[in-house]
Specification:
- This protein has 242 residues and is α/β, with parallel strands linked by helices.
- It has a single domain, classed as Spore Coat Polysaccharide Biosynthesis Protein SpsA, Chain A (Alpha-Beta Complex).
- A seven-stranded mixed sheet has the order 5-4-1-6-10-7-11, sandwiched between helices. It has a two-stranded antiparallel ribbon with strand order 2-3. Strands 8-9 form a two-stranded antiparallel sheet.
- A hairpin with a 5-residue loop joins strand 8 and strand 9.
- Helix 3 crosses helix 5.
- The radius of gyration is 17 Å and the shape is globular.
- The chain starts with a strand and ends with a helix.
């Protein structure tokens, strides 16, 4: 089964406008994310879906492929628009967040393995929260049942007594499930928490969650402080490699 990674990237991020083009070690953040997918052995194809020609140009200048999709209410809708624009599109789709420029390759491997399971509809990953991290509203928490099926996602700590797990913004859609999820109407839970995966849960979609180890990287970029942290992480890693 072919697996295609699509990286949605929009210019007007609320917390950090222009985030996809933020410079990290001389390279735009979105290019780092595209390279991580393009170089992964379990991913057959990788591209960026964006609303802005400057983002598309940056990706193409780096040797990648980008599709201009116009305005869309969510990353899933943007991924679907790019997917439908691909000639002969088939197989599974990974929605790889453009604001996590250095995803752990082992996390991508775990997601790809789930997509090859026969009963998977939607797959994603989580890790244990670090001390104090569960209280951060920008870190989405996820609670699962004993079989690894997601029960709820929230910006508040769930379950209240812990243990708390951080949802990592990676989604894998088995063939046909990207279209199904994107066609669902906005639900009550999504309106409350502003998390589109709650729309899928409310509609009865099974979201299979796999536990992974520590991020083993700098994590996602939501704020200017996050961006500075990621820049420093890359600078330290580059110095160690010399």
């Amino acid at each position: 089964m072919k697996i295609t990674a699509i990286i949605p990237a929009r210019m007007d991020a609320s917390r950090l406008p222009g985030k996809p083009l933020a410079d990290i070690g001389g390279t735009p953040m979105v290019v780092h994310a595209w390279r991580a997918a393009d170089q992964h052995p379990d991913i057959d194809d990788a591209l960026v879906a964006t609303d802005h020609p400057d983002i598309a140009q940056a990706v193409e200048d780096a040797g990648g492929r980008a599709i201009l999709t116009g305005e869309h209410p969510s990353g899933t809708d943007r991924c679907l628009a790019a997917w439908q624009a691909l000639e002969g599109a088939e197989g599974a789709v990974i929605n790889l967040q453009g604001d996590e420029p250095f995803p752990n390759p082992e996390h991508l491997t775990a997601l790809c393995q789930l997509l090859h399971e026969p009963h998977t509809q939607v797959a994603t990953v989580r890790r244990l929260a670090e001390p104090g991290e569960a209280d951060l509203t920008e870190r989405v928490k996820v609670e699962c049942d004993a079989d690894g099926q997601a029960l709820r996602f929230s910006r508040t700590p769930v379950p209240p007594a812990g243990p708390h797990h951080i949802h990592l913004g990676l989604y894998g859609f088995a063939p046909g499930w990207l279209e199904r999820c994107a066609s669902l109407p906005i639900g009550r839970l999504e309106q409350k928490e502003r998390l589109e995966q709650l729309r899928w849960l409310e509609a009865g979609v099974n979201i299979h969650v796999v536990d992974v180890g520590d991020a083993n990287g700098p994590g996602s970029v939501d704020t200017q402080d996050d961006l500075e942290r990621v820049r420093q992480w890359l600078a330290n890693r580059t110095a160690q490699d010399r």
